[in-house]
Design goal:
single chain; mainly alpha; about 0% strand; elongated; about 750 residues; 4 domains; Methane Monooxygenase Hydroxylase, Chain G, domain 1
Length: about 750
């Protein structure tokens, strides 16, 4: 019993766990002003009820979530002001006539649900517009006469305009903040990413928990890079080209992408080297360098965000010098004082590769620190055209074409919009038939909680219901204890400030604080008393249950049925990435590097999508889930394949191509054949073909590596300090052989898991 209680309490605490990051204090302060001014104006003029319309409109316009430039945010707020006013007008016309209000609710919510077809911004606007329609229909919309209707619509426009003007005033203080902040976020997430690689030095066993954290951190960096590229493109596309500041920021974005690749390759090298005895003699120095790299990246992030003029990297330089010194000592000791064997030499080659990778990372960070200094001082800096590679502009699809293509039950967005409209309309109908005093809260809870998939719906429902229950209790206590109207207004604004500040970090805490704020706001307008808190809790429970039933029964989109298609896309993306990288090893004279970055980025996105799909699978009912362990194993090894290919891509910097494995072409052809067959197997729902016998190719490559190492050992006594052709071949081919072996192991496991799943 005690164990069960502890588990329940731990689960409850987990719902309120904060995501990594800092509270959005500026957004909280902005929300404080957005609400405070219209509320204060209403209290001073004695028109609190009328000012509530402007307050709601101002709040909803301010809640539109747009991660982009100020221009994009301004467009979104103008669009929201128009849509919020439009639905208020519609709600006013149909209010008081249930036979008209119910079908209108269905149409409005269905159209709003389809807005998700046009991206996250449109989806965010449609959500707040839908909420405004439901609230207006229940609370504010009364069609008495045209002058009153025009006045109320004018209040909506005034509220939205106030939010826009306030935002413009705040933006004037920091004209380039969105771009700078997204780039700073890239380097901050990079710092956390490389710090996890430091834990690899201490943890040889590669525990499942560490692997999950590392992959999650990698996905976060990729998402931040995608966001930074998008914001940069939006900012400077308007000007038809970037200025010096824009070019500097773009180089920082591309350098961050390069650092990600280097860290992925470094993690692979650490996984290989840490299993051998020599690693312990460089372990402390490697750990110290990685720790300083993480600190340096955090300083770069802060310098970008605060426009700091300089970044001091003395500690990083000292740890690099210590690593180089210890590497030279170790190399001398191994060569001169031991009975040198090929196995020891292979370990030494791996340690040299790790040392070189860390030195290159430190040099990259020094370069970025110089760029940041020039950026903050406004200096001109020569940037080669090769460093500037903005993303190609994609042409948006026509609105009608997108709608026409998705107007079918095969479309997840269409099914979700229809499901959302049915559940919302049903909730509205129940509230009208039972004449519930605050029945629209049932509708609002179902509207907000219902997501395109059952996992998302259940997660949001749990967070919202728990937050509403605890927040409702908090609101009841405040109403019972605080009687003064000014004190209630102060508590309301304080709760809104904290809620909006923590909104990016925890939806549960946001709901927990927002619920008493809404209760206080309603009490301020109409003195409903503490009973409104009880109604809020009960209605939210009912709305949450309704959302869960709707997601389960109405055109459900089960992740289990969609997962094979996502896994197929993921394997094909990693296959394309592998083919492009290996082409540079097979034909180094052609120098076909152009497509590697784009293919790597696409493979990383598909890997993240597959991981997200697997996480959603956890939230589905157990009888729908099926076996989860093979799915998670499959994703881990696909991502391992990505890491191995990235390590090969990074090794291309040292690859001249003068020495070639004779069996490399046959081996890579076999790997491509296996991956293509695995993707086809997932697409067709059939078991894959048996694995071809590829170990013989790998054995021949191992024999060539052994011969190379033996040749190097025979000359090392007289030519230990000279870069001979043999040494060059050893440095080029040893990492290639090691990663090919890891790739074959990863593909073998992937083949076994898919065979098991398809059986």
């Amino acid at each position: 019993m005690l164990s069960t209680n502890k588990h329940s309490f731990s689960w409850l605490l987990q719902q309120f766990q904060l995501k990594p990051g800092k509270p959005a204090i500026l957004i909280g302060f902005r929300s404080l002003l957005i609400l405070g001014v219209p509320i204060g104006f209403g209290m001073i003029t004695g028109n609190a009820a009328a000012s509530a319309i402007a307050t709601m409109a101002a709040w909803f316009v301010g809640m539109v979530n747009v991660d982009g430039t100020y221009r994009q945010q301004l467009k979104a707020m103008i669009a929201t002001t128009i849509t919020v006013t439009t639905v208020f007008l519609i709600a006013s016309v149909v209010s008081g006539q249930p036979w008209l209000a119910i079908p209108t609710t269905f149409v409005v919510i269905f159209i709003a649900g389809l807005a998700g077809l046009y991206g996250n911004v449109a989806s965010s606007i449609s959500l707040v517009t839908s909420i405004m329609f439901v609230i207006a229909l229940a609370r504010f919309a009364t069609f008495t006469n045209f002058p009153t209707l025009i006045l109320h619509c004018g209040l909506c426009i005034a509220g939205g305009t106030w939010t826009i003007l306030l935002s413009l005033g705040l933006w004037a203080v920091q004209p380039y903040d969105p771009v700078m902040q997204t780039v700073a976020n890239c380097y901050l997430s990079l710092s956390k990413f490389i710090d996890l690689a430091r834990e690899r030095v201490f943890n040889y066993q590669n525990s499942q928990e560490w692997t999950e954290q590392f992959l999650q951190a990698q996905d976060t960096v990729i998402q931040n890079l995608t966001s930074a590229r998008s914001v940069w493109t939006a900012r400077w596309t308007v000007q038809k080209g970037a200025n010096q500041q824009g070019n500097n920021l773009l180089v920082l974005i591309e350098d961050a992408n390069q650092i990600v690749n280097s860290v992925v390759a470094l993690n692979e090298l650490l996984a290989i080297a840490s299993a051998h005895q020599l690693f312990s003699q460089l372990q402390r120095e490697i750990q110290q360098v990685i720790e300083q790299l993480a600190i340096a990246l955090k300083m770069l992030s802060k310098a970008i965000a605060t426009k700091k003029t300089s970044v001091h990297l003395g500690d990083l330089d000292r740890t690099i010098e210590a690593l180089q010194h210890q590497w030279r000592v170790l190399r001398f000791h191994v060569i001169k004082t031991t009975n040198f064997q090929t196995d020891n030499y292979n370990d030494l080659v791996q340690l040299r590769k790790i040392t070189s990778s860390l030195i290159n990372l430190a040099q990259q960070i020094h370069t970025d620190a110089e760029i940041i200094t020039d950026l903050s001082q406004g200096k001109q800096r020569h940037i080669s055209q090769a460093e500037i590679s903005p993303l190609p502009q994609s042409q948006p699809a026509a609105i009608l074409d997108t709608l026409r293509n998705n107007f079918t039950f095969d479309s997840v967005s269409f099914r979700h919009a229809l499901r959302l409209a049915i559940i919302t309309t049903f909730a509205e109908l129940i509230a009208a038939i039972l004449q519930l005093p605050r029945g629209y809260w049932i509708t609002l809870t179902a509207l907000v909680a219902l997501k395109p998939n059952f996992g998302g719906t259940s997660e949001t429902t749990v967070q919202r219901v728990i937050g509403t229950i605890l927040g409702g209790i908090m609101g009841i206590v405040l109403i019972l204890l605080v009687k003064n109207q000014s004190a209630i207004a102060f508590c309301l604004l304080l709760l809104v400030f904290i809620a909006m500040s923590v909104r990016p970090l925890s939806y549960s805490i946001f709901t927990l604080l927002l619920t008493p704020a809404i209760i206080l706001l309603l009490n301020l307008m109409s003195a409903d008393g503490w009973q409104v808190g009880v109604l809020r809790i009960v209605d939210s429970l009912f709305g949450g249950v309704l959302a869960l039933f709707g997601s389960y029964l109405l055109f459900p989109s089960w992740e289990r049925s969609q997962l094979p298609a996502q896994l197929e896309k993921t394997i094909r993306a990693n296959l394309a990435y592998f083919q492009q990288v290996i082409a540079n090893y097979l034909h180094p004279e052609q120098n076909v590097f152009a497509g590697i970055n784009n293919l790597r980025h696409q493979a990383a996105l598909e890997n993240a999508n597959a991981t997200d799909a697997a996480q959603r699978l956890f939230s589905e009912p157990r009888h729908i889930q099926g076996e989860i362990e093979p799915v998670m194993t499959l994703i881990v090894y696909i991502r391992g394949l990505f890491s191995s290919v990235t390590t090969l891509a990074e090794h291309l910097r040292e690859f001249s191509g003068e020495y070639q494995f004779t069996e490399l072409q046959q081996l890579t052809d076999s790997i491509v054949q296996v991956l293509e067959n695995l993707a086809d197997s997932l697409q067709q729902g059939m078991p894959p073909q048996p694995l071809p016998y590829i170990d013989n190719y790998l054995e021949l490559i191992h024999n060539q590596i052994t011969q190379l190492h033996a040749a190097r050992l025979s000359e090392i006594a007289t030519q230990s300090q000279i870069l001979t052709p043999t040494l060059q071949a050893v440095r080029e081919q040893t990492p290639l052989s090691t990663e090919l072996e890891r790739i074959i192991h990863e593909i073998t496991v992937i083949h076994c898991v898919i065979t098991r799943l398809q059986a």
